[in-house]
């Protein structure tokens, strides 16, 4: 049997020559994401801002507009309703009041009492403001520690230039994921945070594969120009990187389109993360080595060129 190849076994794409284009594209996108984050922020889910989530279902399609008017007449505050899974299911979100837990509970009971006559209540999730604040702090700490651990790992395994390049690429991936969620105003909850941590691991795995080949070639071609050596290393690992990404994307597309509304956000974050992680390993992490000036301590500096 012939091995599966999505790209030829031997390619000669000049990635390093196009590094400024990729740097500019990343800078533009990250700037747009940062502007969106500063102006409209993230669409935080109940996990992070507190409140109540009610999943309900009935035997016939739900008229969301009529249901919204019906619940607003109850005087329980701003109620958000959206389809969930199919046209018979709905998600009802009720923002919580951080200063009055008793009123929050009363509002939830009022909605439940009104819905029970015509809906089946499948689940009710209540997150208090204190818990949501702790989740935000824990989430930021988890991502920071994950990136710091990668920095230390790569530093010990390779050199500081590799370590710094990989962390910049990881930070790029995390910032790009947060930016796309802000731009599209998709709900950002704890499952998205889990996806970001997964993306960090996936992106690092891709980057290490490229960096490992760079290190091998540094020993093998001691007089080769660094830009040519980086291009050679990327091209030699391109087939592996492409096959890994495509097979992962196939599974994620199945989750995204067939997995249901519950994991829709997680699947989207993973799809985006695999794409941007693969992109950063090739177009960000590897070219950064040229800027950072990788050296072979036992054979002197490598000549750098544009």
E-strand count: 8
Using only C-alpha atoms, the radius of gyration works out to 24 Å
CATH C-level category of the largest domain: Mainly Alpha
**Span of the ends, CA to CA:** 42 Å
Number of helices: 9
The topology string of helices and strands comes to HEHEHEEHEHHEHHHEE
Sheet having the most strands: 4 strands, antiparallel
Compute the average pLDDT: 82
Overall 3D shape: elongated
Question: What share of residues are in beta strands?
Answer: 5-15%
**Secondary-structure-derived class:** alpha+beta
Q: Fraction of residues in helices?
A: 55-70%
Q: Detail the poorly predicted runs.
A: 298-306
Instruction: Give the strand line-up of the largest sheet.
Output: 3-4-2-5
* CATH level-4 homologous superfamily of the largest domain: Multidrug efflux transporter AcrB transmembrane domain
Explain this structure to me?
The chain is α+β, with helices and mostly antiparallel strands and 306 residues long. It folds into 2 domains: 16-44 and 131-301, Multidrug efflux transporter AcrB transmembrane fold; 51-127, Alpha-Beta Plaits, CATH 3.30.70.3400. It is 64% helix and 13% strand. The chain is built from 9 helices and 8 strands. The strands form 3 sheets. The chain has a 4-stranded antiparallel sheet with strand order 3-4-2-5. A two-stranded parallel sheet has the order 1-6. Helix 5 (129-157) runs parallel beside helix 7 (190-220), helix 7 (190-220) runs antiparallel to helix 8 (226-258) and helix 8 (226-258) runs antiparallel to helix 9 (264-292). The longest helix is centred in the C-terminal third of the chain and has 33 residues, at 226-258. Residues 298-306 have low confidence and may be disordered.
């Amino acid at each position: 049997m012939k091995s599966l190849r999505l790209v030829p076994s031997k390619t000669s794409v000049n990635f390093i020559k196009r590094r400024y284009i990729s740097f500019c594209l990343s800078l533009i996108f990250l700037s747009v994401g940062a502007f969106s984050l500063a102006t409209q922020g993230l669409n935080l889910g109940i996990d992070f801002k507190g409140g109540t989530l009610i999943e309900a279902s009935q035997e016939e399609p739900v008229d969301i507009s009529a249901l919204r008017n019906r619940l607003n007449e109850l005087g329980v505050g701003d109620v958000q309703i959206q389809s969930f899974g199919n046209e018979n299911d709905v998600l009802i979100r009720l923002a919580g009041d951080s200063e009055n837990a008793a009123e929050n509970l009363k509002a939830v009971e009022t909605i439940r009492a009104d819905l029970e006559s015509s809906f089946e209540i499948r689940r009710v999730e209540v997150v208090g403001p204190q818990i949501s604040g702790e989740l935000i702090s824990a989430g930021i700490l988890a991502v920071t520690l994950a990136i710091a651990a990668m920095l230390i790992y790569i530093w010990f395994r390779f050199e500081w230039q590799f370590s710094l390049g990989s962390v910049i690429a990881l930070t790029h991936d995390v910032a790009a994921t947060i930016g796309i969620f802000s731009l599209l105003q998709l709900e950002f909850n704890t499952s998205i945070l889990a996806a970001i941590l997964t993306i960090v691991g996936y992106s690092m795995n891709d980057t290490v594969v490229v960096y490992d080949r760079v290190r091998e070639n540094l020993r093998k071609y001691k007089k080769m120009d660094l830009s040519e050596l980086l291009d050679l290393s990327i091209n030699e690992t391109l087939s592996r990187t492409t096959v890994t990404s495509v097979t992962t994307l196939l599974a994620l597309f199945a989750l995204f389109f067939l997995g249901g509304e519950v994991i829709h956000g997680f699947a989207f974050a993973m799809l985006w993360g695999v794409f941007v992680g693969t992109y950063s390993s090739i177009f960000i992490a590897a070219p950064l080595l040229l800027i950072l000036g990788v050296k072979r301590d036992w054979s002197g500096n490598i000549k750098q060129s544009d």
